[in-house]
Design a protein that fits this description.
Helix content: 10-25%
Distance between the termini: 56 Å
Number of strands: 33
Strand order of the largest sheet: 6-7-9-12-15-18-21-26-29
Low-confidence stretches: none
Oligomer: single chain
CATH superfamily of the largest domain: Hexapeptide repeat proteins
Number of domains: 2
Structural class: alpha/beta
CATH architecture of the largest domain: 3 Solenoid
CATH class of the largest domain: Mainly Beta
CATH topology of the largest domain: UDP N-Acetylglucosamine Acyltransferase, domain 1
């Protein structure tokens, strides 16, 4: 079997979550789409936005390239925005193995397609427009399967809460865990601090290897804690939390995803939110995830209002962003990559700015400053800063120049 995962023109619409990573690398319910694909086959090909190509292939060294020969048969083509739900991917695997061919579409285009030798793709590297055009011309029958897809950033949190239990049960089924307590699964002996409490009535709790847990902490499942994560004393994780590898957390976290290498070490609330990688939230940073009217949260993306259909929506923070102490983020706000937050965050925040709007200042951050900061952050975690990491920052800076204009207000110096 061969799997081809492609990013379409709507992948950037998941801003800020996909500004520094492909859509198939988003953690939702403890899995990324590419994690589940790798479990099906080693023959995985990806089509990503050009500026991500080098870093994606360096971070996933076993990806299929045209010089490795012909694609194997059958072929599963997946939109990178497909929700990484283990149950759905298992159904897709069975469809492929049964010999069926067909396509799943929504109003935005192709979600997935299953091809065989009679419906093959040309050899060599493909562009996304070429790929979609070829599949459209095949006039494939419709596959009888519902495949959820991520349209906007808030959908990450929506599906996190919907699929978390299924994905954790899948991990328990396929992983090597010990049930240390009722519904609590550990990859190795876990040094829990004193007086920790776990509640698994609503879902299981999984601790991967290398995790440390401080005393008086509380866990309400479903919760997933990745390798080498650190949980400080008196932390509360509850109701669908994914904490990825080498992250650090303290305070209260509810229904949120924290990607690898990010820090939320101190007291403060984070709810119904998504944090990218290499983020640091200062002590006392809190976000709101509920309007005072208890009404539906309406997000603003690229100056366009989008109804979420959700009552609880927090914040969505791009990679490398930081917050100062006692920062307060209002409901349903997006924070661009590489920005620094101060005071009250009452609007969406562009990338590469020092945002102190409540103090009358929003200034641009030089990309060279972020390159130096990245080097210091990487060194603290014993990560080597590569040329592709530096280039990614420079590419994001150039791509987001248009953002650095808040509601027609010039940046104030």
């Amino acid at each position: 079997m061969h799997i081809l995962i492609f990013e379409d023109s709507f992948a950037p619409q998941l801003f800020p979550a996909t500004i520094a990573r492909p859509a198939f690398s988003l953690n939702v319910g403890s899995y990324c789409l590419i994690d589940l694909a790798k479990r099906i086959t080693d023959n995985i090909e990806v089509i990503v936005r050009p500026y991500l190509h080098n870093i994606v292939h360096l971070d996933n060294g076993n990806l299929w390239l045209p010089d490795r020969g012909e694609r194997s048969d059958p072929l599963l083509v997946l939109n990178a925005r497909v929700v990484p739900h283990a149950v759905v991917l298992d159904k897709l695997r069975r469809i492929v193995e049964s010999g069926q061919v067909g396509v799943v579409r929504n109003e935005r285009g192709i979600t997935c397609a299953v091809l065989n030798r009679q419906n093959h793709l040309p050899q060599g590297q493909l562009g996304v427009s070429q790929l979609l055009g070829i599949i459209a011309d095949m006039n494939l029958p419709k596959l009888d399967i519902n495949i959820p897809i991520l349209e906007y950033a808030h959908d990450i949190v929506r599906h996190q809460t919907l699929i978390m239990n299924d994905n954790l049960e899948d991990r328990i089924k396929h992983g090597n865990y010990t049930e240390a307590a009722d519904g609590v699964f550990v990859a190795e002996r876990l040094p829990l601090g004193q007086f920790c409490v776990t509640d698994t009535k609503a879902g299981p709790i999984i601790f991967e290897s290398g995790v440390s847990v401080g005393h008086h902490s509380f866990f309400e499942g479903p919760v997933y804690v990745g390798n080498n994560a650190k949980i400080n004393e008196m932390t509360s994780l509850k109701s669908a939390v994914t904490l990825c590898h080498t992250a650090k957390v303290g305070g209260e976290v509810e229904a949120a995803i924290i990607e690898s290498y990010s820090n939320k070490q101190h007291h403060g609330f984070l709810g119904h939110s998504y944090l990218g990688s290499w983020i640091n939230l200062g002590a006392g940073t809190c976000n709101s995830d509920l309007k005072n009217t208890y009404g539906e949260v309406v997000m603003e993306y690229a100056n366009r209002k989008v109804k979420t259909g959700m009552q609880f929506v927090g914040c969505f923070i791009g990679d490398y962003a930081k917050s100062a102490i006692n920062t307060s983020i209002f409901t349903g706000k997006t924070i661009g990559s590489c920005s620094m937050l101060y005071g009250f965050v009452t609007t969406n925040v562009p990338s590469f700015v020092n945002y102190a709007r409540s103090f009358g200042q929003v200034t641009e951050t030089a990309v060279d400053t972020l390159v130096q900061t990245q080097a210091r952050m990487f060194a603290r975690r014993h990560v080597v800063q590569r040329p592709c990491d530096i280039q990614l920052l420079r590419d994001i800076y150039e791509m987001t120049k248009h953002e650095r204009q808040l509601a027609n207000e010039p940046l104030s110096l």
